[in-house]
Amino acid sequence: MTGGAIGYSQPPSRDEVAIWLNSLLDTVHRGHSCFFVSLYDETVVGMGHWRRRTEPYLAHSAEVEKVMVLPTCQGRGIGKEIVQRLIQSASKTDLEMLSLSVRGNNHAAIELYQHLGFAEWGRQPNVIEVDNERFDNVRMSLRLCSPSAVVFRGSQPVGPGASTGRELGTYPSPDPRNLLDGLRQDSEQVTYDTEVSDPENGCVGILVHGNDNL
């Protein structure tokens, strides 16, 4: 139950676990989280939780986190049961969406989440660190239920919230050297030095500093 797959690059200490658990239980008591633990013969063999997002504009969604099963108990449907219980509990609240992150090489977990209705909406390549290895961070989400008055703008090809990039399936990449053109025209109090080290991979540095004579 350790490793980058659940948010730790190294096994956490008891003190770190205590801090995390106390914080989680506090949100559970306030109704902002659900924490599910699977027991076998009075031993914890699996767990998982969802936690409501704290940003006001995202408070209708929650993150599913720390879903894990003891290696000796995997393959028995415990993980599936945990995620199903979390979905059921979230469905009884005003939450509209559950989201989660999963390591790109955790194919069994990805398949499980897809089976339960989650869909991948994006991934960050090689961002999860485990020692000297880097893995993709796969982002998935499950829409629950929204009030009838809600209008979904983000997935429309035309109208408010739409864009040419969405319609084409890709977004144009602006030349980073032009990002600060507007500021250059509006102010003479700063100096801009731009260095493009690897523009094809987005490795761009823009240094902004005050003029020496100010």
List the helices and strands and how they pair.
Blueprint: H1 14-29, E1 33-40, E2 43-52, E3 61-69, H2 78-91, E4 97-103, H3 107-115, E5 119-130, E6 133-143, H4 164-168, H5 181-186, E7 190-198, E8 203-210
Parallel strand pairs: 3-4
Antiparallel strand pairs: 1-2, 2-3, 4-6, 5-6, 7-8
Describe this protein's structure.
It is a single chain. This protein is an alpha+beta fold and 214 residues long. The protein has 2 domains: 4-168, Gcn5-related N-acetyltransferase (GNAT) (Aminopeptidase), CATH 3.40.630; 176-210, no CATH class. The protein is 23% helix and 35% strand. The chain is built from 5 helices and 8 strands. The chain has a 6-stranded mixed sheet with strand order 1-2-3-4-6-5, with helices on both faces. The longest helix is centred in the N-terminal third of the chain and has 16 residues, at 14-29.
CATH architecture assignment name of the largest domain: 3-Layer(aba) Sandwich
| End-to-end separation | 56 Å
**Residue-averaged pLDDT, rounded?**
80
CATH superfamily of the largest domain: Gcn5-related N-acetyltransferase (GNAT)
Shape: globular
Number of helical stretches of at least 4 residues: 5
Look at the helices and sheets and give the structural class.
alpha+beta
Q: What top-tier CATH class of the largest domain fits best? A: Alpha Beta
